[in-house]
């Protein structure tokens, strides 16, 4: 049996650092910050850590605590436009960059980043300003 990415990059400690680095930036971010309740920063950080750890082969804490991820459904109440998705990626990239390549080697870093780009794009639920509405056929 091959080692999971979770184990290969240092397990819980690495995903804790990634989530903490991300949320340290979100707290003061003008686009993403207002989407989070002021009284649940720790909960949000834990949920991100649990999700990422589980996705990459770690413990199933997310499912145990929250049920199936259902990312689009869980985020539908938040106005996620392209600017918000790009900002999410910017902050996540900053957090990922704080973790050295010895901990997260380039191949694993690429896999994580590719996944983050797909998730950010998938969560967009608002049109870009100036985009004409879709026409009914």
From TrEMBL:
InterPro entries: GlbO/GLB3-like, Globin-like_sf, Globin/Proto, Hemoglobin_trunc. GO terms for molecular function: heme binding; metal ion binding; oxygen binding; oxygen carrier activity. Keywords: Heme, Iron, Metal-binding, Transport. It comes from the Bacteria. The keyword Manganese does not apply. Belongs to the truncated hemoglobin family. Group II subfamily. This is Truncated hemoglobin.
């Amino acid at each position: 049996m091959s080692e999971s990415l979770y184990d290969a990059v240092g397990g819980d400690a690495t995903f804790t650092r990634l989530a903490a680095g991300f949320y340290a930036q979100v707290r003061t971010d003008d686009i993403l910050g207002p989407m989070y309740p002021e009284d649940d920063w720790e909960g949000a950080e834990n949920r991100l850590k649990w999700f990422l750890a589980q996705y990459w082969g770690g413990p199933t804490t997310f499912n145990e605590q929250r049920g199936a991820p259902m990312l689009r459904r869980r985020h539908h109440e938040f106005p996620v436009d392209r600017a918000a998705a790009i900002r999410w990626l910017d902050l996540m990239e900053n957090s990922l960059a704080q973790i050295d390549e010895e901990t997260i080697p380039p191949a694993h870093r690429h896999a994580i980043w590719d996944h983050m780009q797909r998730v950010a794009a998938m969560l967009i639920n608002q049109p870009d300003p100036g985009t004409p509405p879709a026409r009914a056929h």
